[in-house]
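Q: A reviewer asked whether we had any structural model of the full assembly, not just the individual parts. We don't, so I'm hoping you can provide one. Inputs are below.
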Amino acid sequence: MAETLSQTALTLRDIAREAGVSLATVDRVLHNRPGVRPDTVLRVKAAIERNSFQPHVAAAELARGRARRFAFVMPSGSNPFMQQIEAYLGEMSAWLSARRLSVEMVTTDVFDPSVLAGTLEALSGDCDGVAVVALDHPSVRAAINDLVDAGTKVVTLVSDVPSARRHHYVGIDNIAAGRTAGALVGRLVGQKSGKVAIVAGSQGLRDHAERIFGFNQVMASEFPGLSVLPVLEGRDEDERSEQVLARLLGRHADIVGLYNVGAGTPGVANALSDAGRDKQVVFVGHDITVLTRRLLLQGVMDAAISQNPGHEARAAVRVLLALARGEPILREQEKIRIDIVMRDNLP
Amino acid sequence: MAETLSQTALTLRDIAREAGVSLATVDRVLHNRPGVRPDTVLRVKAAIERNSFQPHVAAAELARGRARRFAFVMPSGSNPFMQQIEAYLGEMSAWLSARRLSVEMVTTDVFDPSVLAGTLEALSGDCDGVAVVALDHPSVRAAINDLVDAGTKVVTLVSDVPSARRHHYVGIDNIAAGRTAGALVGRLVGQKSGKVAIVAGSQGLRDHAERIFGFNQVMASEFPGLSVLPVLEGRDEDERSEQVLARLLGRHADIVGLYNVGAGTPGVANALSDAGRDKQVVFVGHDITVLTRRLLLQGVMDAAISQNPGHEARAAVRVLLALARGEPILREQEKIRIDIVMRDNLP
DNA sequence: CTCAAAATGAGTTGCGTACCTCAAAACACC
DNA sequence: GGTGTTTTGAGGTACGCAACTCATTTTGAG
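A: Here is a predicted structure for the entire assembly that you could use as a starting point for your response.
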């Protein structure tokens, strides 16, 4: 009926006594400092293991006594998703300062590899951790690796650089996100057959490319009645997205589904409603913003795939902190889910 | 280009100097201890405010030096959702013990008000915080209020008791969850018209009743082509759910949608497949378990509404900890989202 | 067996707060 | 002006660990 999980009142002193060594030796083992014979190391580790000893984080943090500095490298410009991440970091300020953490926002042109790499290099040394919305490019990869080699903890945010030795990726599986979008469009269209349009920022962006890939996978295998039109590129800009989509809508009267892969949602929505087809076309897009929220409520958008920006911001900070402290990461907690948002479960 | 959020290096000493008082007085103000003249209080608070001083949580925790005990009061029996919460708490054990927290699992018959109330009363005194899956009943409400009055922090989990003075509710908005289920069933059924069945544990359970309410709302207002059959009660048991649903399926050949409000999913799925109608009926249920995961992959279930049990467990612990420490709660972080899970975004 | 190198013990200091005591000062009241 | 009460100052101790020094012991190589 009652079962207790995890209690510890042991201190380093207890471990030292149990292992038959001094406090100093336990400290050396605990921090991988040199000067301890291998078998002594084992004895100490065994004692730690046996008692499932965990250093008291509060005491450790206090003793270490260092304020930690993290930097968030984010795209300049007015991407609402990124602005939300910034906003959530702002909301954490009390939490942060109570832990003597400081977070610096650095905006830069993340689409220019050399600029981004330069920004990253400049951070080396004065930061304990960096979260970066990264472009996957050799020079960026090199810059990340340099940071890691300098002892800085690096987390990629939203968009990954799997080939770099970053410590962690905080973001969603974009192929799965695309698959989810595909399944939604297909199922919400229902029995009808017809054409499906895709508007993306650019197929050169890793996350967009992955989403399109997943989307096409599902369409091809599960919805043979729907044919996918060639991808339109709107560069995440409103006007351009509107233009290209308007042209496509004019040419195809039998479009029943639309997947907007990136930003540029205002343009996409305009094109749809100007053509008077906003209620007939199943429209699935990404991210919850003021606009997409309204479109969902109006019934123009049918579903949005979302990665909770607040969760993403907090997870990045927590992961950086855990990495800096040498604590384990709660993988399940830091995993970013693919949220399907419809009108009735708007957060 | 670079903007820094929140940095503090001030200590109590600095505040004392700034306010022209001693450390002891600042301490008295900070902890609402008596013996300080009102104008002195104001002077100290002003200094704290001016410097946006935050006590160092690590130092505070260390100085306080108390291990905290929390209790989770959960339903006995084999509810997989509750088992998952337990499992996630287990995974946190390192995190917990590093903070000198202990979590005790107490299982009890949460469906019997007096038994539940008795269990809660018994906890009074030896716990700093209690998370409880609560039934909404006067005696339970009284027990919760007693706990609160005794200084114990109380959080309701999954199922709320809004009339009690609990400090926080960790769980989803069940009406919205029901609405979401309704929207999914309606939209996934498509153009067809027909009947929709509902299987619930009991309409006496607050969360089930709320879900059904939300479901019916959406059905009535948005899907006039679908008629909802009277609610079946399966008491969250597999066999009973199977029996009542099998009987219903036998009587109605034109059932196109099914909403399973609570547990008992194995029985529901059996009834569907035994009738050979598992692929024709749109089936929406709750929670991700080994079984629902399989049903989703097989295409028997079309969508599951889920409240991330891991998040729920962690949020409950974090909220209790913040309450015990007197820290503010990050409401956005602790809010539990209604997740729509389909085959392609299975976590 | 010798001697240097390696391993270990013993100890100190400081991190920022909580919580406590005791004395001194300020104040109110008659 | 004396009394009693309230407010304040000064100081200490403890919390558990990190990080360091320095003396001492053990070890292994020659």
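A: Points you may want to mention in the reply: Chain A has three domains: 12-50, 67-171+309-336, 174-306. The CA atoms of residues 341 and 347 of chain A lie 8 Å apart.
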